[in-house]
Structure of Nicotinate-nucleotide--dimethylbenzimidazole phosphoribosyltransferase:
Amino acid sequence: MLFDATEPLATPDQQVREEALASAALSGTGRLRELGAWVAACQGTFPPRPLERCRVVVFAGDHGVARRGMSVLPPEHSVQTAADIERGGGAVNVLARAAGASVRLVDVSLDHEAWGEERVRRSTGSIDVEDAMSVEEFARAVEIGRRVADQEVDSGADLLIPGDLGVGNTTVAAAVLGAFTATEPVAVIGPGSGITDELWKIKVSAIRDAMFRVRGTTGTPEEVLRRIASPDLVALVAFIAQAAARRTPVLLDGAPVTVAAYLAERLSPGTAPWCQAGQLTPEPAHLIALQALELTPLVALDMNAGQGTGALAALPLVRAAAELLAD
């Protein structure tokens, strides 16, 4: 197995957390006090240091199941958006500049001809009828996610915001979460990019068929992910798990990222305490994953643009919480 579930990760420093909470017991700052204590515990020091190198890492990939026509977005949307992000455009760069963060795009499996150290394949198999990736591709996606996390931590990132990009990514996330939580397809899917009733029916049937393909196999989570996830989602899982292993706090965004955190906790126990929920989206899979992780989002702005944008909207709260506690 590529993920080791036998040795739980070290948790944030509980003694530091209690010291931080006690120091602000009469401050009247509510959840900001708890949030600042989480930052301090992750850093292992009180008072907490200011968060000065917050980094958004957007994992991009397309999904063969999207070819069934379940999105109002055209298939080429992901590649175009990725190009905009690389040029410094798009909502993620605007919000990152406002919040004092920087952005990195990792093209894992977008549907175009490209190759490099961060690429796994061009798009994926359609998970309702075929496997998303091969065993070798799965292993490569895990390695990429881990390597990117190590690179960011080694370069000085003190908080990581994983983001997602790709047409069909909420469908894939919903199928995977539905399989692991035994949730019916109609209860795990949401509006995604905004869909009609007919597109909703297509989405439900695709998720149902994907879940049927892995029935009875959730005892081997890596195989479930290989068959009905995607390289970009697998890389996200590995990225979040490795960030936790490197004792670096993670601020979660929407449904695909939070489902990835749920999977990271399942495959690498001890990941969840290093995560904070930035926001809540209208996606049912997002709420289900948050409840499983026992996380309460900081804001609820109905942002489902992905790319880490919702988490970026909450980032000023995290930074302010740390500075309040240090004052």
Notes: The chain has two domains: 10-49, 52-314. The first strand starts at residue 54 and ends at 61. The mean pLDDT is 92.
